[in-house]
Amino acid sequence: MYAERRRKLGLPPENPATAKTSSSVVWEKDDEARVKRAFQTLLIYIRNVAKHPDEEKFRKICLSNPAFHERVESLIGGIEFLELCGFERTEGDEFLFLPREKVKMEVLNSAGFVLNSTMTNRFFGLLSS
Question: How many CB atoms lie within 10 A of CB 101?
Fold first, then answer.
């Protein structure tokens, strides 16, 4: 059935030598969990700034923080997402900082909505396999 589907889609037959093994399936599930954790962390950052825009501690992220590095920075697009929300690299690339005058609630609300919608989508992670 799988081979027939590949043929109908115009894809070449799968080479058994390059077929996914059970260990690669586990890796994909681990990867999905990492992405979900990154999205959760990004949502916390965005939500905190939206709730407390005047508090600098919520608008400043230390790039050397091990949890930040593991959850967000190590995944492609994590820092770029925060930059799209208005965060900027400052102080010798040690921090991401969102200046108070650049806090845009509509941007933060949209970013939070996208993150939350993605995580609650019942198809999250299915299209990557």
Answer: 7
- At 16, which amino acid appears? P
The alpha carbon of residue 127 and the mean position of all alpha carbons in its chain are separated, in whole angstroms, by 15
Rounded to two decimals, what is the model's pTM?
0.71
Please count the other Cβ atoms lying within 10 Å of the Cβ belonging to residue 68: 19
Q: Can you give the three-state secondary structure of 53-97, one letter per residue?
A: CCCHHHCEEECCCHHHHHHHHCCCCHHHHHHHCCCEEECCCCEEE
pLDDT digits (tens, 9 = 90+) for 87-104: 999 878 899 999 999 999
Q: Contact at 8 Å (CB) between 53 and 100?
A: yes
Residue type, 94: E
